Amino acid sequence: MSYSLVREVLNKKLFGMIELIVFAMLARPTPILIDWELMARAQTRAEYLCEHNQWSHDGWKDSFDGIAGVHGENLAKNFTSVKKAHAALMDSPTHKQNILDPEFHSIGVGKSCGIYVQLFST
Fold it and tell me: Cβ(106)–Cβ(121) under 8 Å?
């Protein structure tokens, strides 16, 4: 784990997003791990979506190139706070399913130009 990645996470308030996800997952039978490789990939994905003015899940599987297992992606855009973005994701049945899915053991979060990306992996 690099110091610059940790600083980036804290600067973008992504730790708050991770904290909310972890609290939501407390009812799960399995713990979730913050995966620094997924953190970097989620950040790359957020930057890609921003740079290409893309707002869709198209190409999301590319974020997991070389990582075996089952994967998921959540996107949130234009929320004024981490709490509001998280609340919107939890209000969406499919996004909530990703967050609470006990099959997912690892998470990474990224943010760029108001787009939050959550990547999940088994």
Answer: yes
Q: Kindly report the pTM of this predicted structure.
A: 0.85
**What residue has token string 């904290």?**
19
Sign of CA dihedral 64, 46, 48, 7: negative
Look at residue 24 and tell me whether its pLDDT is greater than 70: yes
Tokens 């972890």, residue located? 22
pLDDT of residue 13: 65
CA distances from 18 to 24, 82, 107, 118 (A): 10, 10, 8, 9
Q: Does 51 have pLDDT greater than 90?
A: yes
Side-chain half-sphere of 20: how many Cα atoms within 13 Å? 17
